[in-house]
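Journal club side-thread
Mid-discussion, someone asked how the predicted structure for our own chain would compare to the paper's figures. Pasting it here so we can look after the session.
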Amino acid sequence: MPRAPRAFECATSYHVTARCNSQAFDLRGPQARKALLLCLEKARAKFGFTLFAVCVMSNHVHYLIRPALPADMPRLMHWLNWYSAMLLNRLLRRRGHFWEQRYHAAAVPDKDTDHALRVLRYIHANPRAAHMTEGYEYAYSNYRSYVRPAEDGLSAWHPAYLCLGPTLDHCARRYAQFCRRHQSPAKKAPRSRGGAWQLWREVSAKPTASAGKAQADLFWVCGAKYHGGGGQTPGAGAGGTEEEARGFMDAEAKAAASGPYAYRARAWFLLQENTCSPIRYILVKHAASPCIRAPLTG
């Protein structure tokens, strides 16, 4: 089903938020943040929009943008997210979607000066609210250009900011006082994810006492459960001996623990019916990841 088109208006800025895929901290490095600012400059030169505020966090980014024409907003955001995703994927040597979902855009009418000032303060207060800085000074936002009036080559001052006083110095002092009086609200506690704990308990369970001694000893090597059928003793059948299976599991467990990413993973061995020979194993990067238990081919 296609997504509903958005309506953009004249004389209106938009508070845009884009978040990294899976909320990963892909923007935590200075190279990634500088690359994103470079993409923003290229997009500004291409579409001619006005950037009033910007703040690059570790896993998301905030913009306050006024497009040259309302119809330009979808095109410029599509180009900016596409170009930045391509550049950052190459820089970070990753693949797939870089941005998690469609960007969020909230309208900020130019005539509503109080709302515009609150949005500016919210964007500039993000590093402080995240306990990244003690104050508002942050290398990857344009707060400094508002409290120490100077052209930064990328952003412009919002009309609501220019209404704070007769001169830029007066506007800067009043805006700094406006920000200092603000107390960031406490963030909500993370939502409980009971399903992840249930899965963790399931895959971490010790072998039951009803299982045969050899079977419990064999599967205790990797902490996995036996998903085969029948009542044969592990090692009997076409799958090979118990020693072969144990050696295979030991080798794979060591490879997973000492691999290039050092995943703290567990292995699930999918077993043939009435045998103990592994067909496939699946390494799960996180404990909350789903476990696939259907045999794979190939």
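Post-session note: The first helix runs from residue 30 to 47.
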